[in-house]
Every structure is written in structure tokens, then in C-alpha cells.
Amino acid sequence: MPFEFKTGTSLKVTINKAVKREAARKTLERLFLADKAVSGPIAAREKNFADKPKRRGGRIWTKRPNKVHPDIVQGKVATIKATPQVLKDLGSVADIIEVTAA
Asked: Which of 18, 24, 60, 63 is a plausible cystine mate for 52, CB 3.0–4.6 Å?
């Protein structure tokens, strides 16, 4: 692991480069959703959409809203808590991000 932070510390993660790999984008989305400042507006928007059960072909079928993804662009910042798994994930995208103690 390139990052030597203790478990439980708050980390400030900043995206420094454009994210081009799909795997890196998914990892950063998952990590950034741990920050309430990033996930709060998305959760608030999703509360406006309710499941719509209806009969379709004699069975109950539920239309669910689409998942909303956070913006993963250069300059975006999130504060997350360090765990062993988070540090491992941050190490996999270390060439794209900058991590400091918050």
C-alpha cells in the first residue's frame, strides 16, 4: 500500500487527473459515495421517485428508478474514513488521486 494512514483517520481525496479507465471510475464512485456531502444530494433526489408496481402479463412488475451516479471529474473532493479496504482501493487509483489527512 502506498498510503501509510492509520485506520479510522479522515482522508481528503482529490481527483487530479481525468479518469479514463472504467474500473477506476467505478472504484472512485464507490469511495466517493461514502462521503455524505456527495451522497446526500443523490439520496434526496432518489426520494422523489417511488417504486411503481403494476400488473404486467398477469404478474406484479415493479418499475424502479434509475441509479444516479456521482460526478467523477478532475478537481472533485471527498472526505472519507480510512479502513484497510479503502486504503487498498485508494492504492489501485493512486496515479489519479491525491490523498491527504483531513
From this structure: 63
| Spatial separation of the C-alpha atoms in residues 75 and 63, rounded to whole Å | 35
Q: Are 98 and 17 in contact (CB under 8 A)?
A: no
9-25: pLDDT as tens digits: 999 999 999 999 999 99
In a domain, 5, yes or no: no
Number of domains, the chain: 1
Helices (H), 1-102: 22-32, 36-46, 84-92
Q: What domain range is 60 assigned to?
A: 10-101
pTM assigned to the model: 0.82
Give Cα separations from 90 to 38, 49, 58 (angstroms): 17, 33, 48
- Give dist(CA 42, CA 33) in Å, integer: 9
Give the torsion sign (CA, 75, 2, 8, 84). positive
